[in-house]
């Protein structure tokens, strides 16, 4: 793809209204300029690249045909929404994409009226767009609702639940299925363009609706003709499933043919009821390296587009990330125990399962974007005597909460959860933050919850949880730890036992997981006792009681929200025992943090060494660490 230093047509577009006056020839030129700008922009800032390059023409065509934002446009997940942001007046902000106080990496309602629904998690678009369609109908408004969803997101049950409801409601809803896992040969593409144009045109639709009215008077004949139509269409288009859900299916069409997309979308704009348009695109389209390896170019840092992604030579061995520690442990444990089976909801690379999947394909299940199914599947596997390990991000575990409660914890099934991206995550923002898992897990009976403070402890906790005959979770942050080399063995830790790391006076700091490193720094500064708590559930209650008796102030530090978190567990125990001691709970605030680097978000939460030390000193002076009406839990959050 040739680079462009200037974008003459794109420079004139500040809103979709201007886009609608362009000719088809100009739309083609705009597609080239927009793709070139996207590549140059993301190469500077980092972000999601391959998916965005693949939806340029589709984005242009949708905004050209539909009257956004009066018409509702909902993007699923939002990985592919950069072109949408650029065309809706936010091009000037792309240089601050995914950084603190800059543009979000996903659609966000308070960022633009064109972002009709906030997204980040998968498979929500059809439900949201259906709600908008039904709301407009109830209010007597003539507004179209469009959901753009990828083929991967269609693996989630929620998408089909929404489609089933939409078909029953006969809602005026267009679902655009962005299929980027399928290629079109030129011949098939030409045939499908013709077919889609035919099926969406006024002749076919008119005959179809007219025959319905006639056949309504002859139900047996109508049923016969319906089945005959499905049989004929089923031979030439893969839409029978969607027809059964009550949608009229059209496609597949070439998602990189902007002229063809405009023609089909105009035809569909004139139709009513549930419609599904199957659009075939190619991830990374127009940039050969991304086309060849879309997985590598899914999420990128800054790079030179002329060279592509280049592996940086390692001058010295680097300490592994927590994800890599888990991946190595999983392979080692699988070698030691043939009962182990690994499950992931479409996060093989992100969760560190690539090597395991290659080495143990018969004991590996990628269930797609289906967290609820993943958890209940694990429960069923556990019932047979095998040992399931569910590798999942903290934010995505939220999607399977009922299954965690009902199908695993209630039955005390031995499932191990390896929970990646716990705590603050960074540029992806609040939709991907792992802020709540301690709070929503520790209230569940039968759960064991562990928070490793370093890489070796993470490995040992994974072994500990694996050996238990009950559900267990090990939650660890994104990226690297303090650099403690993991031991090669498979050694467990004693359950419910903390580790004294420093003896001090007056103040005891109880650190849960990753905050131990800065807690030790604070301990040195204030001559405080520092404890690596290790377990949120069960707590080391004996040690907690001793600390309360020997110190004037107990300080809990965690990278989870304070509300209902590990600090709350400590306070609840002491209250139950009738032990009175001054306490300070430090953790993530009672609000959704925006995007930013991990360091910026920890500073915002008051979880730096300076902020923790200041909060402790203020508390010892009888003051709180924040003032004013916004400080709802001021003595618990460090900085609010």
Could you walk me through the main structural features you see in this protein, from its secondary elements to its overall organization?
Helices cover 42% and strands 15% of the residues. With 640 residues, the protein is α/β, with parallel strands linked by helices. A seven-stranded mixed β-sheet has the order 9-8-10-11-13-12-17, sandwiched between helices. A five-stranded parallel β-sheet has the order 2-3-4-6-5, with helices on both faces. It starts with 15 loop residues before the first helix and ends with a helix. The C terminus is likely disordered.
Described by the principal axes of the CA atoms, the overall outline is globular
Count of extended strands: 19
Please list the strands of the largest sheet in the order they lie side by side.
9-8-10-11-13-12-17
Report how far the terminal alpha carbons are from each other: 47 Å
Gyration radius from CA atoms, angstroms: 27 Å
Mean pLDDT, to the nearest integer, reads 88
Measured as a percent range, the helix fraction is 40-55%
Give a concise summary.
The protein has 640 residues and is of the alpha/beta class.
Topology of this structure?
Blueprint: H1 16-19, H2 24-45, E1 47-48, H3 50-53, H4 56-65, E2 72-75, H5 82-90, H6 125-138, E3 145-150, H7 157-169, E4 173-179, H8 186-200, H9 202-215, H10 219-236, H11 240-244, E5 248-254, H12 258-269, E6 275-280, H13 288-292, E7 299-300, H14 322-336, E8 340-344, H15 354-359, E9 364-366, H16 371-383, E10 387-393, H17 394-397, H18 401-409, E11 416-420, H19 437-442, E12 448-450, H20 455-467, E13 472-475, E14 499-502, E15 507-512, H21 516-526, E16 529-532, E17 535-537, H22 541-550, E18 553-561, H23 566-576, E19 582-588, H24 598-604, H25 609-620, H26 634-637
Helix pairs in contact: 2-4, 4-12, 6-7, 8-12, 14-20, 16-18, 21-25
